[in-house]
Amino acid sequence: MNEPLLDVRNLRTYFYLSEGIVKAVDGVSFTVNKDEVFCLVGETGCGKSVTALSIMRLVPYPGKIVGGSILYEGTDLLKLSEEEMRLIRGREIAMIFQNPMRSLNPVFTIGYQVAEAPMVHFNLPSQDAWNKAVDLIGKVKIPDPEVRAKNYPHVLSGGMRQRSMIAMMISCEPKLLIADEPTTSVDVTVQAQLMDLLLDIKRKQKMSIILITHNFGLVAETGDRAAVMYSGKIVEIGTVKEIFKEPLHPYTQGLLQCLPISFERKKELNFIPGTLPSPINPPKGCRFHPRCSHATEKCKVEEPPLIELKKGHFVACHLYGG
Ligand code: SF4
Fold first, then answer.
1. Which of 77, 84, 223, 251 is the most exposed place for a label (fewest CB within 10 A)?
2. Is the shortest distance between the CB of 230 and ligand 1 below 6 Å?
3. How far is CA 304 from the centre of its chain?
């Protein structure tokens, strides 16, 4: 279970804007093991999606990966040529986005788009690739796959588009699937079906999933381990059980107390004062200090390192470790 597949070390991805430098991802480190669901969780704008795009090496301009390493099965993805990286994308690591229209091409049928990757990566003849596409469209539980394969994305419902995108992304049986808020564009009943589908595929194909979400409920239901991000940094990593039962970082504690159905039901529903800091000019020291009720003078000047407090449970906070 604990065999590493992906090892991200001190990743830094910055955006160079005319107003200044946005350090969207600023020294992020984590490991994803084989056959696990690893959740990256935090508020919108905390850097989780940019972390995912960095792993895929798809950071849009004016963003740039300025440091760190991303070891995939021991190979640093940041050292690969663009051509070598194209072979990794889709075949080894695939990504599904919140908005399926970002990945689906409106001018090609669903069947063609699902068939394309096996044709490119495995040189499958077009008829074989088409048959595989129809099979995959059935596997993601779209009814009448032979008929639907001939449809264009705009005639499908939101849920079917998301299923089509999942079919596209699993067509080469990647070892790692990055799912960026995969269920936010569909309604609640479809959300549960899509997550069940993803977990079912994960079990059958023995792949790992990085689930990017702001939804702690989804983390509780599906994750094995989770990293909590705040303002471009990871503030806590642990098993999902540890994060829910013994959250260490004041930000994690605050987020959990904001949940409408808190695991601490008897406690009053809480909220975290203030808002996410400016990404161009974040606070010095601990970036959470302006919102933290435990903040001391040290917190305002010294950045807390991420330390392993208990085996596998990491936290970046001066309340721990002196
Ligand atoms: Fe709060 Fe200080 Fe810990 Fe930051 S380092 S979370 S400000 S106690």
1. 84
2. no
3. 24
